[in-house]
């Protein structure tokens, strides 16, 4: 089983702060289960790009030395496995 974190309707800065807190708390508890991050895929009535999903995945990609992640067939979620603390 995994931890779950829903970041729907948050802007990227707030979502990143919430994600880091949950991630670091899991490590502190020695909980290395995957975190199911629900971010949505960016569909909305204005047709904007998936800003949260895109920026979150860029952040994860830039921190591959501290975590691993995998995508799902559902474009609105990403699975993250904690390895070491995020700053």
From TrEMBL:
Question: Which InterPro entries does UniProt cross-reference here?
Answer: Smr_dom, Smr_dom_sf
Name of the protein described by the UniProt record: Smr domain-containing protein
Domain Smr, by residue range, is 5-83
Q: Which Gene3D superfamilies match?
A: 3.30.1370.110
What is the organism field in this record? Fusobacterium periodonticum 2_1_31
Residue ranges spanning the membrane: these are none
